[in-house]
UniProtKB/TrEMBL annotation, chain A:
Organism: Flavobacterium hiemivividum
Protein name: Cytochrome oxidase subunit III
Recorded GO MF terms: cytochrome-c oxidase activity
Keyword Transmembrane helix belongs to the record: yes
Subcellular location: Cell membrane
From TrEMBL, chain B:
A GO term from the CC aspect: plasma membrane
Source organism per UniProt: Flavobacterium hiemivividum
Transmembrane parts of this sequence: 14-34, 49-70, 82-100
Pfam families assigned to the protein according to its UniProt record, in alphabetical order: COX4_pro
Membrane-related topology note: Multi-pass membrane protein
Subcellular localization: Cell membrane
Name of the protein: Cytochrome C oxidase subunit IV
Keywords: Cell membrane, Membrane, Transmembrane, Transmembrane helix
Major localisation: membrane
Protein origin, superkingdom: Bacteria
Length: 325, 118
């Protein structure tokens, strides 16, 4: 017991141990050390995101157009609602966590267990939501075309609404062989072929006079620029790759770095939530078997609580940076 | 002199903070969906006024999470300062350098013959 919970003892000598610098126990102080360094790690990532965004400020994707899915509402444009819901779930799990800490101070074992359980459920729902968000992001909705110069072209109709490749691409009688390792010489292979070839998209575009091309460039209304039919034809002739969904190389939403940062930062945060849930589960069982009751202190709950709140704190910033700004 | 003696149970404060955090999130979401033109198209120090509001609200939420949920307000002032001030300084410093540099590179791509995507 004495080894896990240090209690301040002013009678001991300063260098003999048992002191509590800044009035915080060893475990709590170390948790603060960790949180400060982890906060700086996340700041580094978010600042790097800001750097890349300022670098490509005129061509960055608009978040509202990318994250506009809501469960069971197919084809409905619902920006922000889902991620707002996720934010609420995480804030609420923070509330149950702080209630668990509060109950721990009053040595109420059953209440601590209940609130820890609710926190774990909240964290689980959040990670699940994040996975669903990733699934939509990776799958994509409309598809796009990349030019030889590396910029991305999306398709809209006369009203400026997005059109999916499947809605207009022609079907040409052509054979496209997937290069696999067994066919290639010297370990060559390629990524899964897109549903349509560049030629099919171009033929379909020619056949549908109502379709225009939308470039990545933001106009003075902070909307993506839509080209005229002639300009669209010219740009499309430079196409060299059909992009569907998102991966770490290219994505149909715009700037390549956008998907990279999205995967990396939300992934790193999601990993923190996941570890938090695992740690919470361990502590939850410790509460159930009465470890802290015997120890006479629920400080361990407080320490994981600090970590859990920190995860929530990071999400508040990720939410702003990726979805609002 | 353990901190546990200083701790006072305060469930009503927890719920109040939850109310504040929820309210601020709702305001953020409403602003994010409607994007009022007067805020969205007003530029202030390199960002739209709307973005400044989002960041201000975010820091406001962060304050409540750290001070109420992480119980920073109950800690010694030495611990408070040791955690908060280095973070604020380092993050602002990092943002300042990186965003200035990003803006500079944007200018290079825009005004000179170097092109990135075309």
């Amino acid at each position: 017991m004495e080894s896990t919970v240090t209690t301040g003892n002013s009678e001991e000598k300063t260098w003999g141990g048992g002191n509590e610098p800044m009035g915080a126990s060893y475990g709590k102080l170390m948790m603060w050390f960790f949180i400060v360094s982890d906060a700086l790690t996340f700041s580094g990532f978010l600042a790097a995101y800001g750097f890349s965004r300022f670098k490509f400020i005129e061509t960055w994707p608009i978040a509202d157009e990318v994250f506009n899915h809501f469960p069971f509402l197919h084809g409905v444009d619902a920006p922000m609602y889902y991620v707002a819901l996720m934010t609420f779930i995480l804030i609420f799990s923070s509330v149950t966590m702080v209630l668990a800490v509060d109950a721990g101070h009053q040595m109420k074992k059953d209440k601590v267990a209940l609130y820890m359980f609710l926190t774990i459920i909240g964290g689980g729902i959040f990670v699940g939501s994040q996975a669903w968000e990733w699934k939509n992001f990776i799958k994509g909705e409309y598809g796009a075309v990349e030019t030889k110069g590396g910029s991305l072209l999306q398709f809209v109709n006369k009203e400026g609404k997005r059109v999916a490749l499947a809605d207009f691409a022609a079907t040409l009688p052509e054979e496209r062989g997937q290069l696999t390792r067994d066919k290639g010489t010297w370990f060559m292979s390629e990524a899964t072929l897109p549903s349509y070839s560049v030629a099919e998209v171009q033929a379909g575009f020619k056949a549908n006079p109502d379709i225009l091309i939308r470039t990545e460039v933001l106009n003075d209304k902070k909307q993506k620029t839509i080209l005229s039919r002639e300009e669209s034809m010219l740009r499309l002739s430079q196409a060299h790759y059909v992009v569907e969904g998102a991966n770490l190389v290219r994505n149909e939403y715009g700037s390549k770095l956008f998907a990279d940062f999205f995967f990396f930062i939300t992934g790193f945060h999601g990993f923190h939530v996941f570890s938090g849930v695992i740690i919470n589960i361990i502590i939850f069982f410790n509460v159930l078997i009465g470890t802290y009751e015997k120890r006479g202190s629920y400080e361990m709950v407080e320490k994981v609580g600090l970590y859990w709140h920190f995860v929530d704190l990071v999400w508040v910033f990720v939410f702003t940076v990726f979805y609002l700004v | 002199m353990s901190h546990e003696h200083e701790y006072v149970s305060n469930t009503s404060r927890i719920w109040k903070v939850f109310g504040i955090l929820s309210l601020v999130t709702i305001v953020e979401v409403i602003l994010g969906i409607y994007k009022p033109d007067s805020l969205h198209f007003t530029n202030f120090l390199g960002m739209s006024l709307l973005n400044w509001i989002f960041y201000a609200l975010t820091v406001y939420k962060a304050y409540y999470i750290v001070y109420a949920f992480m119980h920073m307000e109950g800690e010694r002032s030495s611990l408070r300062s040791a955690v908060v001030y280095p973070l604020i300084f380092l993050i602002l410093y990092l943002l300042f350098i990186l965003l200035t540099e990003g803006d500079y590179i944007y200018g290079v791509f825009k005004d000179s013959t170097i092109k990135w995507n075309f």
